[in-house]
Amino acid sequence: MNIAVIITAAGRSERFGGRDKLNEDLGGRALLMRTVELFNKRPEVGCVIVAGPPDKLDDFRFRFGDQLGFHGARIVPGGRVERWETVKNALLEVPGDCTHVAVHDAARPATPVDVIERVFEAAKMFDAVIPAVAVTATIKRVSKEAKQAAEADPIAAAILGDAARPRNLARQVEETIARQRLVEVQTPQVFERGLLIRAYEQKDLSGATDDASLVERLDEAVYVVNGDPRNIKITTPADLHLVRAVLGVRPPQDRPTHKQF
């Protein structure tokens, strides 16, 4: 196999509090570089393509270009709105000699090596392979509408208006979903190159939250191998604390000054 790895890095980090999560420190290296390092030295990987934010691509190149170039990774523009736009753009840059394409979230820098090896090994047998972990929590579907779960202070409401409205919202349970055979999907997801291209040639790609769902729309089989709970996708600052714990690294302010850079 000759695998091209697409790293999706075009997101706006809106749930991360306005900070650039890809530049967060993980043991002295940027989060994005930690993710790229999961793949760049693997013998099956022919190239690494990082799809960055198209509207801020020059800034992205300024911050990461030298480091990514040192690791042999290429930067291409990603999508502006949906994740599938990013992958579709990056697919155009995959070299012709690559037999497979792996897609991985830039915000998953702690993916265990054995997860990558399981996915890559299974991809020798199956054209579409994804990692996932079993859903262990109780899953419920709730109403779209929410109700206030606290009474507003009439005096504060008269002065502040909507700003004084209680933030505690409650949604009604509509159903409890049986969790048997439910799994939570992770990345990297690996596909035979021609299959993934066909998936992205479909006219309607709306609503796709991962690449495997587009392959499923072709009525093609997608196979699941064991993922790992440590394969955390960093979405909020709390996730960053978890990943630092998984990797056994401290935030820069907790390291000696000479080890902060």
Envelope shape: globular
Content-based structural category: alpha/beta
Note the run of SSEs as H and E.
Answer: EEEHEHEHEHEEHEEEHHEH
CATH class of the largest domain: Alpha Beta
Percent of residues in helices comes to 25-40%
CATH superfamily of the largest domain: Spore Coat Polysaccharide Biosynthesis Protein SpsA, Chain A
Structural overview:
- With 261 residues, this protein is α/β, with parallel strands linked by helices.
- The protein has two domains: 3-134 and 183-259, Spore Coat Polysaccharide Biosynthesis Protein SpsA, Chain A; 139-177, no CATH class.
- Helices cover 27% and strands 25% of the residues.
- The chain has eight helices and twelve strands.
- Strands 1, 4, 5, 6, 7, 10, 11 and 12 form an eight-stranded mixed β-sheet that branches.
- Strand 2 (25-26) and strand 3 (29-30) form a beta hairpin.
- The protein is globular and about 70 Å long.
Concise summary:
This protein has 261 residues and is of the alpha/beta class. It has two domains: 3-134 and 183-259, Spore Coat Polysaccharide Biosynthesis Protein SpsA, Chain A (Alpha-Beta Complex), CATH 3.90.550; 139-177, no CATH class.
List keywords for this structure.
single chain; 261 residues; alpha/beta; Spore Coat Polysaccharide Biosynthesis Protein SpsA, Chain A; 2 domains; eight-stranded mixed β-sheet; two-stranded antiparallel sheet; globular
Task: Outline the fold blueprint.
Layout lengths: L2 E6 L16 E2 L2 E2 H6 L8 E8 L4 H14 L2 E5 L5 H9 L8 E6 L7 H10 L5 E7 L4 E10 L5 H7 L8 E9 L5 E3 L3 E4 H8 L10 H6 L6 E4 L10 H11 L14
Parallel strand pairs: 1-4, 1-6, 4-5, 7-12
Antiparallel strand pairs: 2-3, 6-11, 7-10, 7-11, 8-9
